[in-house]
């Protein structure tokens, strides 16, 4: 991502804006790709729209929100990078925003305030996500959907049910974005293990709420000799990372900037996968047979059709095995809650 952004700034800013085919990115031909951001004027949506505007893999950027879209779209559109930006401001324009989209990123919905769980957002966000997914089924059923809206453990199952009802469901094309958990795990591990953060890799599996977030620090690289107490503290901090930000923002919302960064990394991985770049692997909450649960976050190989392969968990420590068993009841019930809501 960093490399791609630098390339974007150094070379593509001076390039014409409407090439059908472009070379010079990861040695691959770069076709036109449309990305739609739904909730583009929000706390996440604005910086995410900025980061997608900097991504040279994007040719068309559709920014949709029910409020304040024109200003955000006008602002972002002045940046001299490849993509053409169009803002869509009302329900009546949602179809146009989605038509032809290769990737749809959804950060629409309300964020937490202190004292709330992600599940407390269900009543409002479930309906928002359902409506947006009905439109996706109608206008861009082949798009890769990046679900950011919380509670992800329920909104992804909601999306799957909506798509099933519409007859468009393809499990390869639906992703819950859990990249922020990985971003946090990498940052916290690097700090504790005193290793360069840019070299760190840590898979994070399970779901995206509290104890359902399970970082696998036993698989972290570069290896470090951390004590059990240190691993427990790192695990807890990763699981509570969202709450740490919610409390620091003291009523003004939840993570937006780090989430925009994480969302941009994940969307970039989807675009690379679609473009045929080999070995694109990110953790994501997807339909899965890795455990007995129908949805589960783990490493996923992303290719031309979306999910190419859901990778297994690898060797777990006793602590992680215990964490895995503990998270299953909560994750199961959040998944079932989403399915029940959407099938009513
Ligand atoms: N997956 C993850 O790791 C993370 C998820 N989130 C979630 O992302 C969501 C958005 O958070 P923020 O951007 O901070 O909230 P925000 O309130 O700042 O922005 C949400 C935006 O969604 C828009 N919106 C509402 N209903 C809409 C609809 N039907 N269609 C299109 N746009 C609509 C609003 O107008 C607003 O601009 C929340 O549910 C939050 O919990 C937040 C951080 C991390
Ligand atoms: O904590 C929240 O409500 C937002 C979120 O999902 C995160 O920051 O991981």
Structure, described:
It is a single chain. Strand 7, helix 6 and strand 8 (174-176) form a beta-alpha-beta unit. The radius of gyration is 19 Å and the shape is globular. It has helices at 2-10, 45-53, 69-77, 94-98, 122-139, 152-166, 179-193, 228-239, 241-249, 257-274, 318-343, and strands at residues 21-25, 28-31, 34-38, 60-64, 84-88, 103-106, 144-147, 174-176, 204-206, 213-215, 280-287, 295-303, 306-310. It has 344 residues and is an alpha/beta fold. Helix 2 (45-53) crosses helix 10. It has a 6-stranded parallel sheet, with helices on both faces. Strands 11-12-13 form a 3-stranded antiparallel sheet. It is 42% helix and 18% strand. It contains 11 helices and 13 strands. The structure holds 1,4-dihydronicotinamide adenine dinucleotide and oxaloacetate ion. Residues 38-39, 41-45, 64-67, 107-112, 121, 125, 128, 131-132, 148-150, 152, 177, 180, 208, 253-256, 259 line the site of 1,4-dihydronicotinamide adenine dinucleotide.
Main sheet record = 6 strands, parallel
Structure classification: alpha/beta
Strand order of the largest sheet: 5-4-3-6-7-8
Strand content: 15-25%
What bound compounds does this protein have?
1,4-dihydronicotinamide adenine dinucleotide, oxaloacetate ion
Ends distance = 40 Å
Individual helix count: 11
Shape: globular
Helix content: 40-55%
Rg, please?
A: 19 Å
Topology as H/E string? Answer: HEEEHEHEHEHEHEHEEHHHEEEH
Number of strand elements: 13
Regions with pLDDT < 50 over 5+ consecutive residues? 1-28
Keywords: Mitochondrion, NAD, Oxidoreductase, Transit peptide, Tricarboxylic acid cycle
Catalytic activity: (S)-malate + NAD(+) = oxaloacetate + NADH + H(+)
Subcellular location: Mitochondrion matrix
Organism: Dovyalis caffra
């Amino acid at each position: 991502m960093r490399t791609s952004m630098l390339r974007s700034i150094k070379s593509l800013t001076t390039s014409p804006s409407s090439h059908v085919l472009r070379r010079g990115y990861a040695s691959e031909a770069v076709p036109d790709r449309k990305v739609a951001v739904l909730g583009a004027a929000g706390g996440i949506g604005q910086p995410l729209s900025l980061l997608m505007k900097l991504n040279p893999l994007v040719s068309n950027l559709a920014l949709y929100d029910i409020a304040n879209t024109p200003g955000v779209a006008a602002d972002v559109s002045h940046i001299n990078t490849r993509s053409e930006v169009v803002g869509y401001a009302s329900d009546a324009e949602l179809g146009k925003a989605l038509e032809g989209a290769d990737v749809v990123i959804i950060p629409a919905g309300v964020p937490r305030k202190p004292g709330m769980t992600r599940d407390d957002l269900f009543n409002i966000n479930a309906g928002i996500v359902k409506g947006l997914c009905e439109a996706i089924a109608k206008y861009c059923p082949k798009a890769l959907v990046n679900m950011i809206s919380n509670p992800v453990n329920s909104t992804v199952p909601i999306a799957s049910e909506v798509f099933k009802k519409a007859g468009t469901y393809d499990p390869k094309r639906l992703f819950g974005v859990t990249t922020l958990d990985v971003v946090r795990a990498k940052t916290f591990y690097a700090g504790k293990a005193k290793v360069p953060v840019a070299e760190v890799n840590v898979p994070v599996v399970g779901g995206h709420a509290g104890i359902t977030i399970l970082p696998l620090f036993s698989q972290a690289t570069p290896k470090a000799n951390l004590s059990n107490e240190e691993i427990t503290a790192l695990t807890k901090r990763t699981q509570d990372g969202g709450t740490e930000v919610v409390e620091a923002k003291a009523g003004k919302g939840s993570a937006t900037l780090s989430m925009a960064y994480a969302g941009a990394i994940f969307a970039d991985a989807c675009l690379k996968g679609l473009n045929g770049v080999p070995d694109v692997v990110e953790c994501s909450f997807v339909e899965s047979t890795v455990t007995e649960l129908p949805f589960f976050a783990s490493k996923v190989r992303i290719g031309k059709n979306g999910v190419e392969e859901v990778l297994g968990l690898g060797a777990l420590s006793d602590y992680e095995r215990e964490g895995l068993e503990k998270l299953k009841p909560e994750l199961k019930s959040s998944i079932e809650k989403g399915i029940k809501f959407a099938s009513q």
